[in-house]
Write a structure and sequence with these properties.
Distance between the termini: 22 Å
Radius of gyration: 22 Å
Helix content: over 70%
Number of helices: 22
CATH topology: Growth Hormone, Chain: A
Largest sheet: none
Structural class: mainly alpha
Order of helices and strands: HHHHHHHHHHHHHHHHHHHHHH
CATH architecture: Up-down Bundle
CATH class: Mainly Alpha
Shape: globular
Length: about 475
């Protein structure tokens, strides 16, 4: 067909083929961010012993990062749509690294809490990373690439648990922060050296392979995109905040995805923070051993986060346009079914294999969900859309605080010991993940037409250029 050939030729001129270097750099930002969170959990007992604070106060430490993320996301989102994204992200890593050193020097709980606000620079900078991935790699491969990007967080978590357990055991809780300073400096340099791709250059790849060398997988002709149900209402380059929000609100499937991710990740963030203290209290393990057992959750999580993206992309290539919706829903519901008995039992031999399986289901939805909420937003608004999503999803950072509050309540009002208080707090929170999965199913009706709108806008921009 002449129009397809023209589209393919136009897209081929605009798209550069990027290797694994940019993805490795972006994954490294996730690794240091997630790894530091895990090493912080290893420092909980030391912080409580030195500053004499409760579980509720400890739960506020990771929540503090979300505060700066909420404040910083809007301006960083605008910059991600208009400035050089790689330098923006590298600057956030530099600020994060400086705050690692300040955390290590904190002389009080208040100082530690305030320095955690600076660590949130990585949270505010996430719009740049999401926007970059969408322009580095073809859209039908986006969930798989998101999985590899998110896998950086799991690699960092394993480093934080294993290496962090050793250094904290030897040098004390402050080394949970010191260990990340040289790594942060290296990652900042790596990110700054990456190219900044043309915005929206990959959106054409939903319906046409742009280059034989790109190995682009395309959806099956048996399930073509439907006609878009809406039209653009503004010029993206000059749009006001109100006009941008009108465009974002029109992308219904993004909002279903955001609600599902926010609800689901209450459990994920709570479990990431409290897993090590759980094994220390319930199974009476020391910090290094607790970190090693918690690594089982991380091993399963690696399989889930990689598998979720590639499974969703595989079914998309077979013509299942809602593949990403279905994988998110399945993983979320399965995770709750496995994790409730995992925490309800007090036998390590039963908890360990359930956590291994639970880790896989827990992270199975992450990559397809991140791809889904990016698919349905035009390239020129992806930074600001990611900023809005970050603000909403910052509520999920309350997971550690919610677990801490419930644990404290169970201990004080139900006369439970510290082990049972934490254990039952996790049992009660585990079904929340399934609720997020059920909400995601609501996106199945609007997702195909939202993607079709993005493709039509990419075509229009290509014709205009």
């Amino acid at each position: 067909m002449p129009e397809v050939d023209a589209l393919r030729s136009s897209a081929a001129r605009r798209v550069a083929v990027y290797g694994s270097g940019p993805l490795l750099a972006l994954a490294a930002t996730m690794a240091i961010d997630s790894g530091e969170r895990q090493s912080l959990s290893l420092a909980v007992n030391g912080i409580q012993h030195q500053f004499h604070v409760s579980d509720t106060a400890i739960g506020f430490l990771p929540f503090a990062m979300a505060l700066i993320g909420v404040i910083g996301s809007p301006p960083f989102g605008v910059l991600a749509d208009r400035a050089r994204r790689t330098l923006l992200l590298a600057g956030g890593v530099v600020a994060w690294t400086v705050c690692m050193g300040l955390d290590a020097l904190a002389g009080s709980y208040l100082m530690l809490f305030l320095f955690r606000l600076g660590v949130g620079a990585m949270e505010a900078n996430s719009p740049a990373a999401i926007s970059l991935i969408s322009d580095y790699y073809p859209a039908p491969e986006r969930a798989g690439k998101m999985g590899l990007y998110q896998a950086g967080a799991l690699v960092g978590a394993l480093v934080g648990l294993v290496v962090g357990g050793i250094v904290v055991g030897i040098g004390g809780w402050r080394w949970a922060f010191v260990m990340w300073i040289p790594l942060g400096a290296g990652v900042a340099i790596l990110v700054a050296c990456q190219p900044d791709p043309v915005r929206g250059c990959q959106d054409h790849t939903w319906e046409a392979a742009v280059d034989a060398t790109a190995s682009v997988a395309v959806p099956s002709p048996a399930a073509p995109l439907p006609p878009p149900r809406r039209q653009a209402t503004c010029d993206y380059a000059t749009a006001t905040t109100r006009q941008v929000m009108r465009e974002l609100l029109a992308a219904r499937s993004m909002w279903y995805g955001v609600m599902a991710l926010t609800i689901s990740q209450l459990l994920l963030t709570g479990l990431q923070f409290w897993a090590v203290p759980y094994f220390e209290r319930v199974d009476h393990l020391h910090a290094a051993a607790a970190g090693a057992v918690s690594a089982l959750l991380g091993i399963g999580a690696v399989a889930g986060i990689l598998g979720g993206g590639f499974i969703a992309d595989r079914y998309l290539a077979r013509g299942v346009l809602n593949a990403r919706v279905y994988v998110v829903a399945f993983g979320s519901i399965a995770a709750s079914l496995v994790l409730v008995p995992a925490f309800a039992t007090t036998h390590l031999w039963l908890t360990a294999p359930l956590l291994l399986a639970g880790g896989a289901f827990l992270t199975l939805p992450i990559a397809p969900a991140e791809a889904l909420v990016t698919d349905v937003i035009v390239a020129d608004l992806r930074g600001r859309a990611a900023a809005v999503r970050s603000i909403v999803r910052s509520l999920s950072s309350a997971g550690p605080l919610v677990v801490g509050v419930m644990s404290t309540a169970f201990i004080s009002h139900l006369a439970m010991d510290k082990a049972d208080g934490l254990r039952w707090a996790l049992v009660v929170l585990s079904p929340v993940y399934a609720v997020g999965g059920l909400i995601m199913l609501l996106a199945a009706r609007s997702y195909p037409s939202d993607v079709a709108f993005v493709v039509s806008e990419a075509r229009r921009a290509g014709e205009g250029g």
